[in-house]
Amino acid sequence: MAEERNIDLQSAKTYKVNSIPCRIRYTGPHSSIPKHLIKIQENQEIITYLRGRKLHGKSITNIKGVVLAKDDMSDEIKSLGQVNEVQYYEREGVSIDQVEKIDEFVKLSELIHG
Amino acid sequence: MSAAAAVEEPIEIEDYEPETIVETSQPQPEIQQDFLPPSVPREHTYKSTTFLTPIPKVILENPKEPCVLGVDEAGRGPVLGPMVYGISYCLKNYESILKSKYGFADSKTLNELKRTNLLKQICDQEGELFEQIGWSTRTMTAMDISSGMLRPPSVGNYNLNEQAHDATMDLIQGVLDQGVNLTEIFVDTVGPPVTYQAKLQKRFPNLKIIVAKKADSIYPIVSAASICAKVTRDFSLNNSKDQLYGSEITWGSGYPSDPNTKKWLNNAVDPIFGWDQVVRFSWQTAKDAIIKNDGIEIEWEEDNEKDDYGDVGKLFRDKASQGDGLDGLPISTLWYGRNVNCF
Amino acid sequence: MSLNSARIILFPESTQDSLKIVNLPHPRTNQEYHYALVNNEELYELTEFDNDNPHSKTNHLRSLTKTDGKPVRSLLLENVNDESDGLVLEESNIIISTKFNFTYILITYFILQLEQGKEFRRYQSLEDITDVLEESIPIILQLPGSLLNTSLENICDSINENDEKFYKFSEEKTINYLKTKSELISQNFPKSIESTIVSPLLYPANIDEKIPEDIKKLALIKYSIHLISSYLHPKTESRLNSSYNFESVNEYITKIQKEKLQKKAAEDQIQNLNQINAQNKRSIGVQDNKNRKKPTPAKKIPSKVIKGPLDGFFGKKK
After folding, report:
1. Distance, in angstroms, between A96 CA and closest chain C CA?
2. Residue C316 has pLDDT above 50, yes or no
3. Given CB atoms, is B269 within the 8 Å cutoff of chain A?
4. Do the annotations mark residue B294 as ligand-binding?
5. Nearest one of B28, B25, B49 to B37, comparing CA atoms
6. Domain count of chain C?
7. Distance from CA of B205 to the nearest CA of A (A)
8. Which of A22, A25, A92 is the closest to B300 by Cβ?
9. C72 with C143, same domain?
10. How many domains does chain B have?
11. What is the pLDDT of residues A31-73, one digit of tens each?
12. Residue A46 to residue A40: CA distance in whole angstroms
């Protein structure tokens, strides 16, 4: 690993992360995600569709995240932007357990390391 | 190819005949700008909707007289837009007038224009038909159709026939709940009539139910239902098109074999998302179009059907993967996740 | 910039002015992993979440891709201020950061020293300790002194001399420190683990009976030790375990398991007899006696004598 240098967190970019229950065989930019990922609020959840599949999701907002990536050339770790929200989606009919699990882990961590 | 891919339109699981009527190059239905059927949602929506008229005047005035109800659908085969189920009812002794006076069930004279006209008359508050005919439609959006057919195996898929049957039964129930004295139901079907008739009969034991192919040309009240469904669908589809893409765009009838539809489908394919919500992604046509137009491969859980062979994931797990020391514990933080070494 | 290496790391809502990824040896396994040093003062553990839970009985049923066994999940990133700036990331495991207590690394270090026969007799200054530690944990020089200070306070006896503090590792203090933590965890035990793993183990064979309170309490402490042992070297773990007596829990669990086995065997036998009776009733119209099945003996209860008087009475299964 490269020498541990401070990562510059200053970024004009803030992202919302959508975690979707399918494997997309592509990593790269896309210029019209919000237009296609139409979301509908339904009680405490968000509904969206991807290629005809109905998905439902929960939002995590009490976080301050960062997108880190390694620079090909310098091997340095850089910030691509901040994250202010994660929306975690599952297929319709599948319960969204992961959000609670993260919560549980955070609470357990506080007890172990506090 | 997953199980979900095989289940598409009429050509599928139960003993239904393949749909031979694949309408080629249908002319774009003539849409009259001044008339928008009340059954069409004003704003394009992803949500399926139901429309139900109040009980027509003549029936209200003769509550004890028997009524007949017809059921038909529109838009089962297309890859674009909603599938609409329509029902229509009138006094039993009025049904013959529908044919003799207005030309319902007369397949020789009914065309797009005539159909639109007839629905217009049914909706015209000054007209006779408005007082005699009650009707209802269920517009099932492309999104609902697709998502029902593409449910994960753990949930179980909701195939097109089940969706159609449920829509039909709900529509009939809606009219019964209004207190209309229905005695006979006539239903158009594409598949074998016997099983479907038994299913409906079981659900509505007090009604006489006839399920027949080409019922819309036999029973005038089914023809009326057919018109309600077809015109609703045509206007719905056009409405969506105008709102999403503008009125200059043309995409044909929405049938997979329609060259205009094929052209539109292959034209604006987003590599990740495909298209907007008007496309039935569960249709083989749509799936093929995504592949053909360099769509990115997207894997869903059902694309790797799980048999209980044990932990295959172990074969692929990283060397750097945590395990030594923690998975030996009866319980550890591995319950939640693992440490990383990714950079 | 290689997006292929892009990862999302979530921190609790607080200011981060600076962030550094450092490598530290895991306190249990000694394997090096990434940790985050935030604002040059706080250390965070980095845990990636996917659906892979080796402690779960249904882990092998989780969804994986066909060709490469990856989780069936990906990320779509939307720039909140610019709709045209979106990212698709195939790699989907999100990393959660949680505060990490450096004390655990120190505990491992000192306990291993103890295991090697070292005795802690002298009090040492922070500086001296840092020098010695640097040999085993070189990264310590990059960490703020306050981190080491706080950790030493937790597990060492200390004395003040000339305004300087001196520390001496205390096993007793360490074990007490860990015991307090274990008991705290047991009183706030994670629900998903309790309902999936602990409670099923403790439920009596008779569903009307309750789990005895004292057994439950002790069992939760036992499992809390397992959890905290995620951060303890096995030698530390065994010292911590020794400070409790879990005999009653172990005996209880053994007793319960035995009762459950007996109950199942009895139920199987009844089901067997019922099935055969039903089959015999169905074939009553047929004159053919060959169709009549003989009842099969149910699975033997392990603690009983192998050959019993009834063995000859019931015929063998065909």
Report:
1. 12
2. no
3. no
4. no
5. B49
6. 3
7. 33
8. A22
9. no
10. 1
11. 999 999 999 999 999 999 999 999 999 999 989 999 999 988 8
12. 6
